[in-house]
Write a structure and sequence with these properties.
Number of domains: 1
Distance between the termini: 45 Å
Shape: globular
CATH superfamily: HUPs
Largest sheet: 5 strands, parallel
Strand order of the largest sheet: 5-4-3-6-7
Number of strands: 7
CATH topology: Rossmann fold
Helix content: 25-40%
Order of helices and strands: EEEHEHEHHEHHEHH
Length: 239
């Protein structure tokens, strides 16, 4: 793929691997990567999550925004358990933001972002990408340790130590463009970039594929974000 630079010279587009879960944050991150001129290779995972709705949402998002390719990889994290997203554990409901951030919640999937980024790193080497994007956020989030700037910085250091590309001098960069944004700021940014949030899925415990529960941590953060942004959330809630 090619683009014209300011001098009118046709140059190849830079490639990037973008983690796309089907959620609001990853959809915005994909739109930002495309807006920055990257040819995007989208990567999603079936990791044993209890609901397939987010994979369907990921397909809708990448089709809407446009990517070079969309790979969906099967990685079963259910044998490790200890998460409400992969195990027979109740999803917390109706919690305040203070309660959400008081401790690492049971919806945390052990080492999930490390595993996802490791796969993104392998794809980046194969497709010749020097950039990896993920939609983690350290402001309006549920207290996950792998959503912090320190984690992103540490993984970038590892990426450049542990790969052929890094050793040969092709520096790999891990981008987390939402890391310091509130949920409202993310929604406003995505809206400006043309993200259709009706295509996304955020709920941890949807009663049906067509509805979100409206009561889990993710739904509550999403709804508050749209309210603070002064916009209407286009998805349907059970309540």
């Amino acid at each position: 793929m090619y683009y014209g630079n300011d001098a009118g010279i046709i140059e190849p587009m830079r490639r990037a691997v973008v983690l796309v879960s089907g959620g609001l944050d990853s959809a915005t991150t994909l739109a930002m990567a495309r807006g920055d001129g990257f040819a995007c290779h989208a990567l999603s995972f079936r990791y044993g999550q209890r609901h397939a709705a987010e994979i369907d949402a990921a397909r809708r998002v990448v089709e809407h925004l446009g990517v070079v390719e969309h790979r969906i990889i099967d990685i079963d994290l259910r044998p490790f358990g200890h998460s409400a997203l992969t195990d027979a554990i109740d999803v917390p409901k109706d919690r305040s933001e203070d309660e959400m951030s008081a401790e690492i919640p049971v919806t945390y999937v052990p080492a999930r972002n490390t595993i996802f980024l490791a796969n993104a790193l392998a794809l980046a080497e194969v497709c010749g990408a020097a950039d990896i994007f993920l939609g983690v956020n350290a402001v309006d989030y549920s207290g996950y340790p792998d959503c912090r700037p320190a984690f992103v910085e540490a993984f970038e250091r590892l990426a450049n130590l542990a790969t052929k590309a890094g050793v040969e001098g092709r520096r790999l960069t891990v981008h987390a463009p939402l890391i310091d944004l509130t949920k409202a700021e993310i929604i406003i940014k995505g809206t400006q970039l043309g993200v259709d949030y009706a295509l996304t899925h955020s709920c941890y415990d949807p009663p049906t594929d067509a509805l979100a529960c409206g009561r889990c941590d993710s739904c509550r953060l999403r709804r508050a974000g749209f309210e603070q942004a002064g916009l209407t959330d286009p998805i349907r809630y059970a309540d």
